[in-house]
Amino acid sequence: MVISQPVDSMGQLSSGNSHGSPPRGPSPSGGPRSQGAISGAAVMTVARVVNVTVSLVATAIIARLLDKEDFGVVMMVGTATGFFAIFSDFGLSLVTVQRAEITQGQLTALFWVNCGFGMLLSIATLAVSPLLVWYSRGDTRLYAVTALMALTFPISTLRVQHEALLKRHMYFRRLAVVRVSGIVLGAIVGVSAAFAGMGYWSLAMQLLATEAGATIASWLAMNWRPGLPGRCDGLRSMLGFAGALTAHGMVGYWASYLDNLLIGRYCGYGELGLYSTSYQLMMRPISLAGYGVGEAAVPAMAKTLQADGDVRQAYRRMLTVTCLLGLPICVAGSCWAGDVVNTVLGSKFLGAIPMLRILFLAAMARMLCASTGWVYVVLGRPGRMLRWQLMWTPFVILSFILGIRWGAVGVAAAYAIANWIAFLPSFFYCFKGTAFSIFDMVEPVAAPLFCTVFSTALALGGQLLLFPDLQLGKWRLLVRVLLACALYAATTVAFVPIVREAWNRFRRNWFATPEK
């Protein structure tokens, strides 16, 4: 049985529901499919805004109850387990999203493959804990923390195919609820444990609770249940596609986490705590804009391609949404890093300011480059994506090694420089041999970048003019953010077509003169 529509718990084709059926048929640029993709991106973005807000509030509370060394302990374990996390999905969620047709038997096989990997990864995590303790100069605290975090793998793999089906059928409202549920539960558990005086355990428990909450919510949100394990047609080709994606992630791990290992060993847990919290704040715009929009962009572009639509136009519109969301955070975060650290993390983490300022600049390049992944996956080119990662990773590892001489700030600077050096080559390599050109990237970036720089600079000048006596902290940040948001809204309506279209629709729907 071929699944091109939602499936119920018995694997039968189901009709649409209150969340709407997947769009059908070709769609011209700006048509129903494009609008549906942007609507899905909006839903996922709102969910990520909620997640970021909840996470920041939880981090702000926990950071005032824990020492920065506690963050370093958990980050050392998280760096090690992060490598195994690459294999938990094994790229099989993207297989489900990308394929034009998929059967119940194939879905069941993918589910059990994911679960098997989850169990193996949990065992592997426990097995490497002695190596991690040795690398950390005999810190035996890492044994127990590693054992607890190893449980995240079998829990998280249970939901991989359920979330993939939600994406495939563009049920973004349900997926948003799943993501928010996990973050909220994790925040409640983490903050409660911190108040109970559990130290670094509160951070590990927060991660475990987040995974458990999201898994339970995904099973409730997607009414599909796997069958018993068995053989199915096409599994080998699906595993081949997924294997290339996983190899890409495995190689890319070292470009994402080697900095933590170097800083933890040569600079100490305190410095790692400052760096890791800065890095997590930097990841907000990438998570919100690059990966958040990507969750809607990949299924939308895949459906557009299957319907012989203009996939380049779909890409440009989704990248514009990414820029509209992410560029203001990156630019303002870099310019106002002192106020961000003071407001979110508190005075104990003021040493993170120079790192955060540099990392936000790196985030801008990394966020935009995340869109190349959409193209690789939708066009079915995971092998080429892997080859780029094999070229990029040694380069960024070398930058970390060179930067560690100047401590965590040097590593942050080296990371930012490496990302910007590779920025244009990554797009040229991705687009080579396709209908895409570099202008498909430049056009969506230009107008949002102008609006971002203009509104950020004007907001800074407005704050200095209206409230010159405000000192470093939350009130100065609040004034700047409010001014910047108002200016950004006005300029994007004037210069960004997508925003102008949305504003015109809003005016027609809410301010239209009723007919007599």
Describe the 3D structure.
The chain is mainly alpha-helical. The chain folds into 2 domains: 66-233, no CATH class; 247-506, no CATH class. The chain is 78% helix and 1% strand. It is built from 20 helices and 2 strands. It has a two-stranded antiparallel ribbon with strand order 1-2. Helix 1 (32-65) packs parallel to helix 8 (172-195), helix 2 (68-89) runs antiparallel to helix 10 and helix 12 packs parallel to helix 18 (439-466). Residues 1-34 have low confidence and may be disordered.
> What proportion of the residues form beta strands (DSSP E)?
under 5%
Q: How far apart lie the N and C ends?
A: 54 Å
Strand arrangement in the largest pleated sheet: 1-2
Q: Write down the secondary-structure element order.
A: EHHHEHHHHHHHHHHHHHHHHH
Number of strands: 2
Uncertain runs: 1-34
- Helix share bin: over 70%
Indicate the overall shape. Answer: globular
Number of H/I helices: 20
Q: How many domains comprise the coordinates?
A: 2
Descriptive keywords:
single chain, 516 residues, mainly alpha, two-stranded antiparallel ribbon, 20 helices, 2 strands
Report a brief summary of the structure.
This protein is mainly α and 516 residues long.
Secondary-structure map with pairings?
Blueprint: E1 2-3, H1 32-65, H2 68-89, H3 92-98, E2 102-103, H4 104-135, H5 141-149, H6 152-157, H7 160-168, H8 172-195, H9 200-221, H10 235-266, H11 269-306, H12 311-335, H13 337-344, H14 353-378, H15 382-403, H16 407-421, H17 423-431, H18 439-466, H19 474-495, H20 497-511
Antiparallel strand pairs: 1-2
